[in-house]
Amino acid sequence: MQVSATSSSTSSSAGSSRQIAQLQKQLNELTKQLRDTATSALDAKAKEQKVRLLQAAIAAVQAQIAAIQNERQQAKAQASDSKAQEAAKTTKANKTGNPTLGSQVNTYA
Hints:
Shape: rod-shaped
Helix content: over 70%
Number of domains: 1
Largest sheet: none
Distance between the termini: 47 Å
């Protein structure tokens, strides 16, 4: 079970890395368009509208990147918690399964 959890988190991490790379590419393109708008031949009102639109698109892409990164962080934390719980169960099982000499000796006999 632990192996499948590790492999699924690895594949989701690779998928999120791919998504982030695509979003960063999109972010770079939007930033380039924003720079180009500043020197374009559009009238002031059209420039202002285009700048606002591009800024909103940039903010949306940045929010998507942040959401993916947060999901990845939560998945790592959850995997770490699962490993810690499994280790605690194993430790507890070992303690109850192997009685110590002190627990086997009757001191009143």
